[in-house]
Amino acid sequence: MGGEMTQGNRWLALDILRGLSIIFMLLNLNPGSWSEQYGWVLHAKWEGATFIDMVAPVFLFCIGVAIPLSLRRRIEAGESNGQLAKHILNRAGILVLLGLFLNAYPAFDWAHMRIPGVLQRIGVCYGAVALFVLFTARREGGFRLNAKAGWIAWTFVLLSWTALLMFVPVPGFGAPRFDPVGSWPAYVDRLVLTTDHMFPWWPVDGKVVFDPDGLLSTWPVCANVLFGALVGHARLTGITAPILKMLVAGGLLMAAAVGLHTTIPIIKHIWTATFALFTIGFSLVSLGALTLLVERWNSAPAFYPAQVYGSNPLLAYMLSFLVAPLIDLVWLKPPAASIRAAGQALFAQAFEPRLASLCFALTMVTAIFLPLWVCWRNKWFLKL
Question: Which tens digit of pLDDT belongs to each residue from 144-179?
């Protein structure tokens, strides 16, 4: 999940952006109260997007940026395409297995275990894009990503996904369908996974009908990873005025997504093309702004916590999900029976409920930061 760059060509702004995405993810996953949260920490119910909806796409974009940087290092070390393909497949497979383990933990109720998930999606998209980059790259004179093939593939992913949603009738529902019940992603997930193995926490009319990390909607997610790989290639080749180009291109992509919203709605849960465009644009603007702050204005020390998080993102993610059930166990006497409830009650003595909930989430971010900081100081990094 982390970028495998040597210290000499490490893109510090990329590490920081990856770390910020993990930090904001933890703020979403660890509130003091699930019913008391600010709107920016909550996902959009369906159409539109909130700030927290940018977190997963930004992280996926960062994974893409690191792909050509990692491949170049390994190729320069003498690894063959076969060795690299084996490494990519092993890494992708381990991510999928870790995601399944976290879905099963701590109950291990196989009959009702959710199959899709964030790590599963990361593993599949990373594997698909990394293999594509590897086998279309040029090795003459050193590793060079095939940018033309990348742009063609990126365009094909978004156009094919849009064509499916808009023009191919869903059995029993017709076309176009962008809703949580009758869209292609929801239909396929219910057909293949069955609702016992889907995301149960966002029902529609009391029924489980879709999964936000479902099977079919993983296809357009590859567009975010692939665009990131193209940005990583541009970094390697020394593109002129990179910061300005990232800011301008990002702004244009976000504007295009908003302009197309009435025709192709921006929906994270089925990862519409407009959502992909908007979040790619947001990722570009964020990376450009951080590169400006870090490389031109020397403000890296201000982002030290994010740098620590960004150096060990898989460990941070695993710790968060392993600890989450523990803070909800009944350790104490009612009414504050769990650590989460006790924390919310404690902060609510000084702050209004939503701020108290955010304070608890920030406490969890700090708690997870401490073991990450120890690992950082000792150069212990969990890599696949």
Answer: 899 999 999 999 999 999 999 999 999 999 999 999
Pair 147, 62 in one domain: yes
Name the DSSP class of 268.
T
Final residue belonging to a domain, choices 296, 327, 358: 296
From the centroid of its chain, how far is CA 367?
22
Give residue 336's pLDDT.
63
What does the pLDDT look like over 8-53, one tens digit per residue?
A: 457 999 999 999 999 999 999 999 999 999 999 999 999 999 999 9
Is the peptide bond prior to 305 cis by the omega test (within 30 degrees of 0)? no
H-helix or E-strand containing 31? none
Please, where are the H alpha helices in 11-117?
A: 12-29, 55-76, 81-104
Quick check: 262 pLDDT over 90? yes
Sign of CA dihedral 119, 125, 131, 137: negative
* Burial status of residue 166 (CB atoms within 10 A of its CB: 0-12, 13-18, 19 or more): middle
> Is there a contact between 289 and 247 (Cβ–Cβ < 8 Å)?
yes
Q: How far apart are CA 224 and CA 227, in angstroms?
A: 5
Q: Which domain holds residue 315?
A: 1-42+306-384
Query: pTM higher than 0.85, yes or no?
Result: yes
String of b and e for 335-360 (b: at least 16 CB within 10 Å)? Answer: eeebbbbbbbeebbeeeeebebbbbb
Say yes or no: 78 and 198 in one domain: yes
Q: How far is CA 151 from the centre of its chain?
A: 21
CA distances, 216 to each of 134, 177, 347 (Å): 24, 14, 42
144 part of a folded domain: yes
User: Count of domains in the chain?
Assistant: 2
Distances (CA, A) of 172 to 181, 182, 209: 11, 8, 15
Q: Cβ(196)–Cβ(111) under 8 Å?
A: yes
Q: Which among 312, 307, 320 has a CA at the least distance from the CA of 381? A: 312
